[in-house]
Every structure is written in structure tokens, then in C-alpha cells.
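1st attempt posting a full record on here, be nice pls
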Amino acid sequence: MPSLQSARFGFLFRPAAFIIGFVLLAVLNTLLAAATPTENDPVSIRLVSVFVYSVLGWFTYKRSRVCTWVLCCLMILNGLSTMTVAFPALLANQGNSGMQLANLVAGGYFFYGGVVLFLNRPGGPAATTDGE
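the predicted structure (as C-alpha cells):
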């Protein structure tokens, strides 16, 4: 069975693409929050999250063990929470179905990305070689 990385759009399933996509999603959320600021969701908190995600992404790319663990957990939790909100809303036909489907796909993508980063972590099962 061919791997996802060898397919036509295989570049989307590389660890670096998951990291870049996760940071870009935080940037997009910050821009959307800046367009319609509210008291409950200040833009400054979003800017801090972009900074933290960028730093975590950079050090994960550089194979830092702790940053990889933290970013994996953030990606998996973000993906799961997005899917758990989008899936019931899609089944109940609440709101824009296209947007709910996009949220479901994005949540699945980042959940899968968190798992891939976890499996490729420094000292993980993919990083060790046992002579085979």
C-alpha cells in the first residue's frame, strides 16, 4: 500500500507541512479575531498564541523533544475538539454545512498531523534504528 507522502499531494502529509499549517491556522484565527474584536476574545491573546505556536513549531522542526511533545498534544487536542464540535453540527444540519465539513476535515488533518509528529518525535519509534 503506498504511503500518503508518496502521493500527488504528499507534501501536505510531511511533518513540516503539519507544523506550518498549524501556525498558519493560528495566524488566520488572529486575523479573523482582529477583524471583529470582542471583549471576551481579545486580539492580544491570539497574538500570544501565534508567537507560542511559532516558537514551538520552530523548535519541533529542529527536533526539540519537549517542544515536540507539547506541539503534538496541542495539535491532537485542537483536532479532536474541532471534530467533536463539527461532526454533531454536521449531522444535525446546524449552520453552514460546507463550513462544518471544512472544520471536520481540518480537525482530522491536524489530529493526524499530531499523531505523525508524535510517531516521528526524537527518540520515538520512527527515530530509532535496530539494524533492520
